[in-house]
Amino acid sequence: MKINITRDEIITSMDKIEPGLNKYIALMSYKEKDANWFDNMEFRRKFNGFYRVRRSADSWQRHFYTIMKDAVNQPHSYSDVLNKLYKATNRVEASFASKLYATVNPDAPVIDAEVLRNLDLRLPSTQKPAATRISLIVDIYEEMRDCFNQYVSTESGDFMTKEFLNRFPEAHITPQKILDLVLWQNRSPKQETNQR
User: Fold this and answer.
1) What secondary structure, in 3-state letters, does 115-167 show?
2) To pair with 27 at 20 to 30 A between CA atoms, which of 61, 108, 161, 196?
């Protein structure tokens, strides 16, 4: 798999990136201000807004933020997060598991429809058994991570990072997160949004 995004597409994506970038930076700033940021209700409100969490606060979110706390206090893989979320909620949550994981590990990508489309990847059918889906999703996620890490070390990745730093010199985010935001904004005009 290879990321095929042109310099013109990078520049066009950069033109649209600022609103989402500002929300992301505000969200991640809690990690610098509060050792227990995962328990901070304002952080949770912003996380829920940025990532469109609409699940029950009393059940699903309680499990989700407990897993986030666990992942901060003891290193977790993406597979660990996905499996714990499934065991707690009985739902295979590929995207939300990646959002949790990438919040704890800022060099990790987020599984998002636009990012998957740009990588020419698809999540497995919901008709498959949960264990099979989880295994396939973990493979896809590892493929995404490898692809992101390879891309940021290429000439195109260097161009993207320099373009980002020229536009947003105060934004201190990883090259992988820059790529994640660029791919998220590289969409057709009908699909434009500033929410994840």
Assistant:
1) HHHHHCCCCCCCCCCHHHHHHHHHHHHHHHHHHHHHHHCCHHHHHHHHHHHHH
2) 161
